[in-house]
Design brief:
Blueprint: E1 2-3, E2 16-21, H1 27-35, E3 53-58, E4 62-66, H2 85-93, E5 97-105, H3 112-123, E6 128-133, H4 140-155, E7 164-166, H5 175-191
Parallel strand pairs: 2-4, 2-5, 5-6, 6-7
Antiparallel strand pairs: 1-3, 3-4
The structure holds guanosine-5'-triphosphate and magnesium ion.
Length: about 190
């Protein structure tokens, strides 16, 4: 199901996990890698392909949600609440949303728009984890350097870091870890 109004999303009767990040960070590709589909979520070279809140029901157990990108690198000046109000409403009010995966390009320095988005999530008490994408594009040295740098910059603002995942949609690294995290979180939810 696809729409822009959180009240019109599917009944909130299963745990839900959303995927968000800047346009082109690799959200749709990661969703396809996680679900073993070639084209469940539409991918493209052009930023802004995903425009709606897209729900996918997985194994009749949980919802996976592909969200639109919250900004382009080019317009990062206007960022703060740049991402559309329907997205903020969804993230803030969707009652079964257990965790949001914030996707970050592992090749880049921390981007203002991403840092501000995570701060907004923190201020509003919305749980999230960090997912670094496109790790296949870096060698081990550059990868370690980038991740250390990212942690350092985050720790200037945050007291502690949320869980982090390191992924590639090309070689599927990190996908098992994400699915295990979802399973474990679902178990906690089921017990309540
Ligand atoms: P929007 O829907 O436009 O916001 O983009 P998106 O975040 O869904 O990105 P998408 O999955 O469409 O990927 C954007 C581009 O990056 C495509 O050309 C993908 O093939 C490429 N890409 C995505 N993930 C990876 C990855 O892990 N490794 C490599 N090498 N390329 C990737
Ligand atoms: Mg997309």
């Amino acid at each position: 199901m696809s729409n822009t109004d959180y009240t019109k999303c599917p009944e909130p009767n299963m745990p839900e996990y959303a995927f968000i990040g800047r346009s082109n960070v690799g959200k749709s590709s990661l969703i396809n890698a996680l679900t073993n589909h070639k084209s469940l979520a539409k991918t493209s070279g052009k930023p802004g392909k995903t425009q709606l809140i897209n729900h996918f029901k997985i194994n009749n157990e949980w919802y996976l949600v592909d969200l639109p990108g919250y900004g382009y690198a080019r317009v990062s000046k206007t960022v703060r609440a740049e991402f559309q109000s329907f997205l903020r409403d969804y993230l803030d009010k969707r009652e079964n949303l257990l965790c949001t995966f914030v996707l970050l390009d592992s090749r880049l320095d921390p981007q203002k728009v991403d840092m501000e988005f995570m701060e907004w999530m923190g201020e509003n008490g919305i749980p999230f984890v960090m997912v670094f994408t496109k790790t296949d594009k870096l060698n081990q040295t550059k990868f370690s350097k980038n991740m250390k740098h990212y942690e350092k910059v985050m720790l200037e603002i945050w007291e502690e870091l949320p869980p982090r995942f390191y992924t590639s949609s090309v070689n599927k690294s990190g996908t098992e870890e994400i699915l295990t995290f979802v399973e474990q979180t679902n178990e906690v939810y089921d017990k309540k």
